[in-house]
């Protein structure tokens, strides 16, 4: 029997210098890079504006997210690429998949209106990261068992 190669969960973490001298969009961009939501050198960085919009307003409908993303990109003199509603929905889903935001029947918001630090501690570190680490550990054990015969 062949195992399916479909990841049940995925988490990429990167370590950068401490965030002492950066702020605003650059700070949110570095957070997205740190979480693997954005790839280094990637010009398709619309997820930064989606997250910024929700950090600024805390609660937005999908059309409001689109409106605010356009305004943020114009403010930062960024090209208006990746702003199609379908792409914005995909970025919102990516943020939901790592528990940073949640969808209510009428809008999107930062998960439980909490701080990002608490979201990281309670949902990402204690839940997502822990379960991924445990499963990877099972693979290490299985490989050791298989190849130590």
What's the arrangement of strands in the largest beta sheet? 1-3-2
Low-confidence stretches: none
N-to-C terminal Cα separation, in Å? 21 Å
- Count structural domains: 2
N-to-C SSE string, H for helix and E for strand: HHEHHEEH
Per CATH, the superfamily of the largest domain is Winged helix-like DNA-binding domain superfamily/Winged helix DNA-binding domain
Largest sheet entry:
3 strands, antiparallel
Strand content: 5-15%
Q: Which structural category do the helix and sheet elements fall into? A: mainly alpha
Radius of gyration: 18 Å
Helicity range: 55-70%
Please name the CATH topology of the largest domain.
Arc Repressor Mutant, subunit A
Name the overall outline. elongated
The CATH architecture category of the largest domain equals Orthogonal Bundle
Overall pLDDT confidence: 93
CATH class category name of the largest domain: Mainly Alpha
Number of strands: 3
Walk me through what this model shows:
With 149 residues, the protein is mainly alpha-helical. The protein folds into two domains: 16-113, Winged helix-like DNA-binding domain superfamily/Winged helix DNA-binding domain (Arc Repressor Mutant, subunit A, Orthogonal Bundle), CATH 1.10.10; 114-149. Helices cover 55% and strands 5% of the residues. The chain is built from five helices and three strands. The protein has helices at 24-34, 46-57, 62-75, 85-97, 116-147; strands at 59-60, 101-103, 108-110. It has a three-stranded antiparallel sheet with strand order 1-3-2. Strand 2 and strand 3 form a beta hairpin. Helix 1 (24-34) crosses helix 2, helix 2 (46-57) crosses helix 3 and helix 2 packs across helix 4. The longest helix is centred in the last third of the chain and has 32 residues, at 116-147. It is elongated. The two termini are 21 Å apart.
């Amino acid at each position: 029997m062949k195992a399916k190669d479909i990841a049940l969960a995925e988490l990429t973490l990167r370590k950068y210098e401490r965030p002492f001298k950066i702020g605003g969009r650059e700070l949110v961009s570095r957070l997205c890079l740190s979480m693997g939501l954005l790839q280094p050198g990637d010009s398709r960085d619309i997820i930064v504006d989606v997250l910024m919009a929700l950090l600024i307003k805390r609660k937005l409908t999908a059309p409001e997210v689109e409106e605010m993303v356009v305004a943020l990109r114009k403010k930062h003199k960024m090209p208006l690429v990746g702003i199609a509603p379908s792409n914005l929905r995909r970025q919102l889903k990516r943020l939901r998949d790592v528990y940073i935001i949640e969808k209510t029947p009428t809008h999107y918001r930062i998960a439980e209106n909490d701080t990002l630090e608490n979201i990281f501690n309670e949902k990402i570190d204690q839940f997502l990261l822990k379960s991924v680490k445990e499963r990877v550990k099972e693979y290490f054990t299985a490989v050791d068992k298989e190849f130590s015969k």
